[in-house]
From TrEMBL:
This is Protein OS9-like domain-containing protein. GO terms for cellular component: endoplasmic reticulum. Residues 1-27 are annotated as: Disordered. Signal peptide: none annotated. It holds the Pfam family PRKCSH. It comes from Discostella pseudostelligera. Residues 44-90 form the Protein OS9-like domain. The lineage of its organism: Eukaryota, Sar, Stramenopiles, Ochrophyta, Bacillariophyta.
């Protein structure tokens, strides 16, 4: 099953569950955009510090991993990126689930 085949169903208690099926792709697109817009707001990137690394997810742009360091020789001390790895780059238009291929198109 591909991501394009997913649709949202409402349970009796009002919660949403994801199930497979045909049709309903407009609902999925709208729902995903609504969730991202509500979650991200005006920020388009989320960051998470885990030990040495900082992970950054920028919606419709990229995912990267980096380590910040501080140069104490400068006044005031300045932060700089010492090591950076791009984990993925988004190349779609960001407007549609059609940017994601079906499993048989990969």
């Amino acid at each position: 099953m591909s991501i394009k085949d997913l649709l949202l169903d409402n349970d009796d208690d009002g919660t949403e569950k994801v199930s497979g099926g045909g049709g309903g792709n407009d609902e999925v697109r709208r729902s995903i955009r609504e969730i991202l817009n509500k979650s991200l707001g005006t920020r388009k990137c989320l960051e998470r510090d885990i030990g040495w690394w900082t992970y950054e997810f920028c919606y419709a742009k990229q995912i990267r991993q980096y380590h910040m360091n501080i140069d104490i020789r400068t006044k005031p001390p300045k932060q700089y990126i010492e090591t950076e790895h791009i984990l993925g780059i988004y190349k779609g238009s960001g407007n549609s689930l059609d940017d994601y291929p079906n499993e048989d198109e990969r």
